[in-house]
Amino acid sequence: MVVKKEMIAMLLAGGQGSRLGILTSDVAKPAVSFGGKYRIIDFPLSNCINSGIDTVGVLTQYMPLRLNAHVGIGIPWDLDKNLGGVSVLSPYEKIQNTEWYTGTANAIYQNLSYMESYHPEYVLILSGDHIYKMDYEAMLESHKENGADVTIAVMPVPLEEASRFGIMITDEEGRITDFEEKPEHPRSNLASMGIYIFTWKTLKEALLANRHEEGLDFGKHVIPYCREKGYPLYAYEFNGYWKDVGTLTSYWEANMELIDIVPEFNLYEEYWKIYTKSTSITPQFFGPDSEIERTIAGEGTEVYGKVYSSVIGCDVTIGEGSVVRNSIIMNGAVIGAGCILDKVICAENSVIGDGAVLGEGEEAPNESRPDIYCGGLVTIGENSVIPAGVRIGKNVMISGQTREEDYPGGRLASGKTLQVEAQMP
Q1: SS in 3 state form for 99-143?
Q2: Which of 389, 269, 400 is nearest to 337 (CA)?
Q3: Of 303, 359, 313, 306, nearest in space to 333 by CA
């Protein structure tokens, strides 16, 4: 039986996200927790099903185990279809020229046969690591009305920030006349969002024509090829909320924006739900002496202390007498009794011992990666253990099952990095 789909989506989810530091040491960026109960990939997947797209290829590569398990067969997003649905597409061994995905477009090229099997008219290319709500159906309508071969989603940014993006220059009708990659003196403020709709015939031709390019990339190879061939390229302007949570500070800020009194990014809209896989089935519990203000808390969380302006994941425990402020506590973390946490990111299943203080004192640049561990944050890696009673400064990263002797005088000064290798059994 021949299966034909008007538009399928290809979701690029294989990136490491190295600027998130220890948070992505063992997990792909799209699988990082966000907003208490979600993972980053939930947002583009939910956009797909809310936009009527029922065929999605998820391209994975870096540390894919948790991402693959989370996506599964797509049940939370109603993508468990007999014809279409969600497919996890990892690199695979071939008779000749076996290779990893070496660029965004190379990953798509290596899955030509998957796309071909659906005989699509259009292919939507997405990134799996942005937080936003977008109606891709409206973008497709614009693509059709313009008679475009390529439509690129763009977002207006302040002109002084435009040099950080790929910039599209358009005419009055929205046709792209030129584009610049991170220009020193930008001629436009329309930044590419890394979201593309291609007419299938054009995409296939461009991928085959450039297949031998090293690190085959949309911005460097495919889009320039289409422009040189004279194919009509159009911009689709998006003016909603869109966040690239590519750094620890932007990740923390995006989470904190969720708890504004009137959040710019609303998780509670009935008409555009965000779906996710939930493994916790127990309800939340708040102890008799607990306090909680301006906080999101996931299922199965138990709070016996006080939590202010924070995002708490599922199955978290916060002990009696503890105070947590301005922090992100991910799934399964345990905060002991009598702790104080301020601007802390605790990754999944981390344990903070009784009476520990995290985020005290004055800031100092991090000694190992000041470009990553900054903004006054304390970042605790997955499955890490912080012993009872220690005091930790700001711009600190800790990973591993640390012990009292790792903290001379019971302290770890601001700007320090402490990594303890896992012990072999």
Answers
A1: CCCCCHHHHHHCCHHHHHCCCCCEEEEEECCEEECCCHHHHHHHH
A2: 389
A3: 313
**pTM of the shown model:** 0.92
Q: Which two tokens stand for residue 418?
A: 């402490």
Query: What is the amino acid identity at position 288?
Result: P
First to last CA, the chain: 53
262 Cα distance to chain centroid: 23
Element (H, E) at 228: helix 223-228
| 389, 339 Cβ separation under 8 angstroms | no
Q: What are the tens digits of pLDDT across the range 53-100?
A: 999 999 888 777 788 888 887 888 878 877 788 888 887 555 455 567
What is the Cα–Cα distance from 377 to 122, expressed in whole angstroms? 43
For 332, which DSSP code?
A: T
H helix runs in 229-358, sequence order = 248-257
pLDDT for the residue numbered 10? 96
Contacts of 217 (CB under 8 A, 6+ apart): 103, 104, 105, 106
Phi-psi region of 400 (alpha: psi -120 to 50; beta: other; left: phi over 0): left
Contacts of 367 (CB under 8 A, 6+ apart): 415, 416, 417
The Cα–Cα gap between 190 and 157 comes to 6
Run of H or E residues at 398: strand 396-399
Q: Read out DSSP for 173-214? A: T-BEEEEEES-SS-S--EEEEEEEEEEHHHHHHHHHHTTTST
136 within 8 A of 51, measured Cβ to Cβ? yes
Q: What is the pLDDT of residues 208-226, one digit of tens each?
A: 999 888 888 898 899 999 9
Residue 123 tokens read as 């292919």
Residue 171: what residue type? Answer: D
DSSP 8-state secondary structure symbol assigned to residue 283: P
The 3-state DSSP class for residue 341 equals strand
CA dihedral 214→220→221→225, nearest 10 degrees, is -160
